[in-house]
Amino acid sequence: MKIITKTLLLDELKHMAAATFGNLVKAVVDVDRELIAVVTKRIVR
Description:
By secondary structure, this protein is α+β, with helices and mostly antiparallel strands. It has one domain (2-38). 24% of the residues lie in helices and 24% in strands. The protein has one helix and three strands. It has one helix spanning 10-20, and strands at 2-4, 27-30, 35-38. A three-stranded antiparallel sheet has the order 1-3-2, with no helix packed on it. A hairpin with a 4-residue loop joins β2 (27-30) and β3. It is globular.
């Protein structure tokens, strides 16, 4: 998981997607803290 607190470029997001789910990124947004948590590794259980 990667915590994003600054501007995230589209190319960075595409790279994260390619490394995990292909064309999908899972993320959680905390509006109060102004951050995004992005899944950067695919976990298979």
